[in-house]
Amino acid sequence: MSNPTVINFLKQSDIFHKITATQLELIANLCQELVFQEGETIFREQSEGKELYVIAQGEVDILINTTPAGAATPSETKETRLTTMRRGQSFGEIALVDEGLRSATARALQNDTRLLLIPRDKIIMLCETYPQLGYRLMYNLAMDLAMKIRNSDLRIREQLLYKSHQNKNTLDLRNKLL
User: Quick count: other Cβ atoms within 10 Å of Cβ 39?
Assistant: First the structure.
């Protein structure tokens, strides 16, 4: 992907909202393009991570390991999809904040999934060198994370209410039978 193409793409991504053309050029210079095929793992849950990814083309599933405790073999491994990320969305941003282990697995959902990888050390150095850019980028990342947390909260709430409703119906049926 050429630099002007990367810059035009970054303009369309939410985490680069209100970032100037000059600042986008600086960020574009940090980007490395990666291509994944359907089913390829981008990173695994609990692996080290120090990169942010932005989807330029394709889709990426974000998965968590829901294997029951005590499962011993890889064939017993169970993954649950949290979400599917699409063009313009970013993932791996928690690594920019805490450098901790990955909280989920990311896997390409389509052939020729193109990602822009931005290394943590380089983006942090850029943010420190250009504080206005750093403020705007961190603000945008915070907004993105807040939206993801709200969506997760909503899904958890829906699951709890659904289970609560199911349990109530089971008890009502049981009481009717007794």
Answer: 11
Structure-token match 């981008």, residue found: 42
**CA separation for the pair 150, 59 (Å, rounded):** 21
pTM assigned to the model: 0.81
Give the tokens for residue 152.
């997760």
What is the C-alpha separation between 140 and 124, in angstroms, rounded? 14
Contact in structure between 144 and 93 (CB atoms under 8 Å):
yes
Let me know if 6 is exposed, middle or buried by CB neighbors in 10 A (0-12, 13-18, 19+): buried
- Intra-chain end-to-end CA distance of the chain, in Å: 69
CA 174 vs. chain centroid, Å, equals: 43
Q: Is 118 helix (H, G, I), strand (E, B) or coil?
A: strand
Alpha-carbon gap, residue 157 to 161, rounded angstroms: 6
Rounded to the nearest 10 degrees, the angle between the axes of helix 21-28 and helix 3-12 is 120
pLDDT tens, residue by residue, 123-146? 999 999 999 999 999 999 999 989
Q: List the one residue out of 129, 58, 50 whose CA is nearest residue 94.
A: 50
Residues contacting 119, CB < 8 A, separation 6+:
30, 32, 50, 51
